[in-house]
Amino acid sequence: MAVVRGVVVVVVALVVVVVVLVVVVVVVVVVLVVVLVVVVLVLVVVVVVVVVVVVVLVVVVVVVVVVVVVVVLVVVLVVLVVVVLVVVVVVLVSLDSTGSYLARGRVNNTVVILTLLHTLPLTYAIRYHHRQECLYNAACW
User: Fold this and answer.
1) Is the domain of 110 the same as that of 47?
2) Same domain, yes or no, for 104 and 74?
3) How many domains, in total, are found in the chain?
4) How far is the C-alpha of 114 from the C-alpha of 120, rounded, in Å?
5) CA–CA dist 103, 126 (Å, integer)
6) Longest Cα separation, the chain
7) Cα 27 to Cα 19: distance, rounded to the nearest angstrom
8) Are residues 40 and 109 part of one domain?
9) Which of 10, 64, 117, 141 has the fewest CB atoms within 10 Å, i.e. is most exposed?
10) How far from 115 is each of 29, 50, 73, CA to CA, in Å?
11) How far apart are CA 60 and CA 47, in angstroms?
């Protein structure tokens, strides 16, 4: 009987050890799976955050480029308008070198400026003004 008891004790001890080992392995596997899932979720969140940051940066860059292009176009347009106005003034002054028309008021400045601005090409307006000068002064160049 003592032998049977010894065998039973050994068998029970082996079963307990196997059960404890199985429980430890299951707990370790569950912990590893949970850690793996958490790591994957953290990586997914990091990837999503990086994608959002990249998209926001691209949008900001596009907006900045559009604003810069619009500002440059507006500046170019303003410069062109100023250049055209300066050319008109220079042409008026050079066509009226004697000062006779503008000084005596024979030619309406607004009409001349509008003629120069709205008549294309600009040389037509210069020729028209020159013909008018020839009519008034009988001095053609």
Assistant:
1) no
2) no
3) 2
4) 11
5) 19
6) 152
7) 12
8) no
9) 141
10) 91, 60, 26
11) 20
> What pLDDT, on the 0 to 100 scale, is given for residue 35?
95
Of the chain, the percentage scoring pLDDT greater than 70 comes to 62
88 within some domain: no
Burial bucket for residue 21 (CB in 10 Å: 0-12, 13-18, 19+): exposed
Q: Is the pLDDT of residue 57 over 90?
A: yes
Q: Which domain holds residue 69?
A: 1-79
3-state secondary structure 65-115: HHHHHHHHHHHHHHHHHHHHHHHHHHHHHHHCCCCHHHHHCCCCHHHHHHH
Tokens coding 112: 């001349």
- Per-residue confidence band for 97, with pLDDT thresholds at 50, 70 and 90: low
Q: What would the pLDDT profile of 62-75 be if each residue is shown by its tens digit? A: 999 999 999 999 99
pLDDT value for 49 = 96
CA separation for the pair 92, 88 (Å, rounded): 6
87 inside domain = no
- Residue 89: pLDDT band by 50, 70, 90 thresholds? confident
- Residue 141's pLDDT is 47
